[in-house]
Amino acid sequence: MRFLQNGKFCIFESNIFMMDLQTRKNEFIEEFLKLQSEELIAQLESLLKNKSVPEKNSIKPMSIKKLNSRIDASEVDFENGKFKTTEQLLAKYK
Fold first, then answer.
1. DSSP code, position 23
2. Are the C-beta atoms of residues 15 and 9 closer than 8 Å to each other?
3. How confident is the model at residue 3, as a pLDDT?
4. CA-CA distances (angstroms) from residue 77 to 67, 74, 81?
């Protein structure tokens, strides 16, 4: 993984997922120590503190009955004008 100076990162090794966890952690730390972007470091700190990436087992499957119930409720909301446009959502996160 390489972190670029513009605050973005890219994975350049196709076999990165074949490494064991300890090797991946070590490589991450080495790349982290080379970072010069304060903004990127703050983003990574926030990610670690909030753990906004869900754990594999934290997402529970939904029953078909529950899914259909949520779809029905969403359709009623839409018919009653209870929704946000793409523009509204994008403006909220700018």
1. H
2. no
3. 45
4. 15, 5, 6
